[in-house]
TrEMBL record, chain A:
InterPro entries: PPM-type-like_dom_sf, PPM-type_phosphatase-like_dom. Residues 32-227 form the PPM-type phosphatase domain. SUPFAM superfamilies: PP2C-like (SSF81606). This is SpoIIE family protein phosphatase. Signal peptide: none annotated.
TrEMBL record, chain B:
InterPro entries: Thioredoxin-like_sf. It comes from the Bacteria. This is (2Fe-2S) ferredoxin domain-containing protein.
Length: 393, 90
């Protein structure tokens, strides 16, 4: 496997709860190309479950990233976790996944539904090692499942909380819940329908279906995570004219040579590129709001927008996960959707300061392009685990 | 008759200085003017670098209106339509 690994998750809270009892944590070590993620389901729901799940997931995440053996980490967690006195069960369950740069995934599971691996549109059977745990409760054996998988491009590794597998339980259609064979059937059908379906979209499809099984009132927290290794999808975002006009040519060459989606944010920048490529820019006045200028079209570019206002709003919307979903279609929403469907974002940023922006009579604060781009870059990396590259010209 | 072109700058400076209001221009046009104009946007007319003029900028039939407002643009369009004169900035 070589390329990019997209990891995303979707979640619905138990009906009437205001906080999730399932917690999904994810970290990506840039230098090593390693990904660690943990899904934990706390007993019950609401705040108590959230605290327990957070405790478990944070421990798992910390131990695993700090190079502790994944099975040992799981053991320590098991020993640390409080147990329910009445029900004699642990307060939380977990699935921990540790993927190295060559795509080998080590997976430890404790009491969560078994994960699924889909390859070439089919479910792959996985050999798992059973690791028995010290007998904490007389008459009941507890065990961890450990497995190693060599991930290949276009695989989907899917894991979820029991809110997914038990959805619909008690209904006429799914009296015993949405059991593994049904979920497998659903997932393979979705992948075969759209071979390039992103981790983001697939996890959402699964949780929406689980919610539908529960007749739109989730009986438990529903969480699903998907790991999707693939060739990286690349995007170039050009913004700002070069400080030295002699570098306009350099900007043009970079723009032309790039393979992948291309976005231009900024009127002057778009002008430079259009002139260099001898093409026209056409502004589409339909999609605009009071604070976001309209977008434009140019042959060869996938999106052309205004600069600072659009980028500032984009940074603001990106800070809250999914906040743009309810937004009306405009330049910002289009930009965010393109960013979300990309793995590698290349920023090519001109550093020339627009003097007109420095006019004290301007009624709103216009940030500096470099600062805003840097903010977007940081959010994309830390919150959405995108790979980013930044070049100033 | 050839339509009168109205080009509205939607660059950052113009947008915050009032171009967002100017984009509602179409709603203020009544017949026969509404059918005699062609409104388009521009990513940046490039005039903000010229210290003599203040944004937002609109070009009516190729001529510049600085500190443009819906009222100013309407007056210019009326003048263009009836063959009258309007004091353009450039």
């Amino acid at each position: 496997m070589n390329g990019f690994i997209e990891v995303d998750y979707a979640q619905n809270w138990k009906h009437s709860e205001r906080i999730a009892g399932d917690v999904f944590l994810l970290s990506r070590d840039k230098t090593e190309g390693r990904i660690v993620c943990t899904l934990s389901d706390g007993l019950g729901s609401g705040v108590k479950a959230n605290v327990l799940a957070n405790l478990t997931a944070t421990m798992g995440q910390k131990f695993t990233t700090s190079r502790m053996d994944i099975v040992d980490s799981a053991r320590v967690i098991m020993k640390t976790l409080p147990t329910c006195r009445e029900r004699k069960i642990s307060y939380s369950t977990f699935t921990m996944v540790d993927i190295n740069s060559s795509g080998v995934a080590k997976i430890v599971e404790y009491d969560n539904p078994p994960y699924m691996l889909i390859r070439n549109g089919k479910v792959l059977k996985i050999e798992k090692t059973v690791i028995p745990l010290e007998n904490r409760f007389p008459g009941r054996t507890e065990q961890l499942y450990y497995s190693e998988v060599n991930l290949q491009n276009e695989d989907r590794l899917i894991f979820f909380s029991d809110g997914v597998s038990q959805s619909g339980m008690g209904t006429a259609k799914l009296p015993l819940g949405w059991r593994t064979p049904f979920i497998e059937e659903f997932v393979t059908a979705e992948i075969n329908k759209d071979r390039n379906i992103s981790a983001r979209d697939l996890s959402r499809k699964i949780t929406s279906r689980a919610l539908l099984n529960d007749i739109q009132k989730a009986k438990d927290d529903i969480t699903c995570a998907v790991v999707y290794p693939r060739k990286p999808r690349k995007l170039l975002l050009v913004s700002g004219p070069p400080i030295d006009p002699e570098n306009d040519q350099h900007l043009l060459e970079k723009y032309e040579a790039f393979t992948g989606k291309k976005i231009i944010c900024g009127g002057t920048t778009a002008g430079i590129i259009a002139e260099g490529l001898n093409t026209e820019i056409e502004t589409d006045l339909r999609e605009r709001t009071a604070d976001i200028p309209p977008l434009s079209r140019m042959e060869g570019a996938d999106l052309v927008t205004e600069g600072i206002l659009t980028l500032s709003k984009t940074a603001e919307m990106l800070e809250t996960k999914d906040s743009w979903v309810a937004m009306q279609t405009n330049a910002v929403r289009r930009l965010i959707c393109m960013l979300m469907n990309t793995d590698e974002v290349h920023f090519l940023v001109g550093t020339k300061i627009n003097e007109a922006h420095q006019d004290p009579s301007i009624p709103v604060e216009l940030g500096l392009r470099r600062t805003i781009i840097h903010r977007i870059k940081t959010i994309l990396e830390s919150k959405y685990l995108k790979q980013t590259f930044l070049e100033y010209i | 008759m050839e339509k009168i072109s109205i080009e509205i700058c939607t660059g950052t400076t113009c947008y915050v200085m009032g171009a967002s209001d100017l984009l509602t221009l179409e709603e203020h046009l009544r017949p026969p003017l509404s059918s005699s104009v062609k409104i388009s946007g521009s990513t940046c007319l490039g005039i903000c670098r010229d210290k003599r003029f203040k944004p937002p900028f609109v070009r009516v039939a190729g001529k510049l209106i600085a500190q443009a407002s819906v009222r100013k643009v309407l007056k210019a369009v009326e003048a263009e339509y009836s063959g009258g004169s309007y004091a353009y900035d450039e």
